[in-house]
Amino acid sequence: MKTSEPETEKAVPPLWQYVLITDFHPPASPVTESVKKRLAGFRRLFLRGEPEQESPFKASDDLRALPEWQCKRVAPEPEWRASAEALTLELQDWLDQEKPGKPVIVLVGPPHGGHAATLSAWAEQQGWPVLPPPSAEQILAGDDTWPSGHGSAGTLWVFPTLVRAYLRHAEGLSLVRRFLDRVCSGDLGRGIIGCDSWAWAFLRRVWRGRLPVTLTLQACDKDRLADHFRQLADPSGDRPILFRQSDNGRYVLEPPEAEAASGVETSNFLQLLAAHSRGILGVARAAWRASLQTEPDEKLTEEPPDKSARRMAGQTVWVLPWSQISFPALPSGAGRDEAVVLHTLLLHNGLPLELMQQLLPLSPSQVMETLLRLEDSGLAVQADTVWQVAQRGYPAARQFLQGNGYLIDQF
Fold it and tell me: Which residues 6+ apart lie within 8 Å of 350 measured at CB?
């Protein structure tokens, strides 16, 4: 049995917390807190008549972007095993039931939120087989042989990418409708499905079956982001790297104990980051990496990363103030073509160029030209043969589509 924890620790939310989709809530906007801080600053300046004490800072000319190998050291790709373990705890009652009332669980997550990677890790941990997605040809043909080899009540399976089972096309929906009908009736045994939030919003419009149990990962607020970034930067907890805001010297992550005890002020950077990213871990991490700066150190830069990584222990990494970070924005004159392409990318969580040219009501050259404009603006990126909405570009893309009346997700 665990010993009781201090009240301050109990207040910190768990990093990986799975909830019903109806209980999801994005991080709170920091506007109110920002207004309060401005008012407090005015009172100090004008009511007391005392100038504010200058805070330590680093001039931007004295800093440079953190080298890529150092970014990988302090902000690597997340490990999804812990997320998968948290999912197991959430599903334990369902797993323990011999014949659950709901044979399928759907895990929904926003783009770059890690739900598919979590389910892949979970399947490996539990030893459950992963269903391969159908091909585009199978989808468009409405192939009723997919999924093959999964047709008994005792079958266990995981399908992390429901988004790969449909295409927004007149002939691209019958397969996924039939699949959802079968899994929800129990015909395919017990399974867990992962689905991107934009695809789920669309499928709920075109499939009218009984809604299965639908879970999601709770959004990362500023406390969860702080916990996550701290663990990534210093997994052992022995020699922490310091993160301080470059314009005022305030700590962005938890300050050393001695300074924390003295009531040192901390930055509101993570609150702004949480609101901007809507609590999506991949989006927040991309902006976090873009904000990290360091003082030039020729010797450290020249050393191989495997030899110099230890030297980062205790080092100060400077974080650009929020107002100095450059974020992708829609290209000048963006209109219908950009909206249609972005919406299609989000509804399918990325597509190869050839499929986009087949699905969209644009000429092949228009599709290519629009993708290149979006890539130049930082909103789209190509990985191998698949085009996706970029992590840093996602907030601007979502806002643009919402402002133009397109169907969006609830995240």
Answer: 383, 386, 387, 388, 389
- Spatial separation of the C-alpha atoms in residues 236 and 253, rounded to whole Å: 16
Residue among 99, 230, 96 at smallest CA distance from 154: 99
Q: Please, which residues have CB within 8 angstroms of residue 171's CB and are 6 or more apart in sequence?
A: 140, 141, 142
The answer to whether 225 and 15 are in contact (CB under 8 A) is no
90-145 tens-digit pLDDT: 999 999 998 888 999 999 999 999 999 999 999 999 999 999 999 999 999 999 99
Give the range with max mean pLDDT: 98-102, 113-117, 231-235, 291-295: 113-117
- Nearest CA to 158 among 184, 189, 137? 189
Residue 294 three-state SS:
strand
Nearest to 251 by CA among 271, 233, 270, 265: 265
Separation of alpha carbons 200 and 176, rounded Å: 12
According to DSSP, the β-strands at 242-245 and 316-319 are parallel
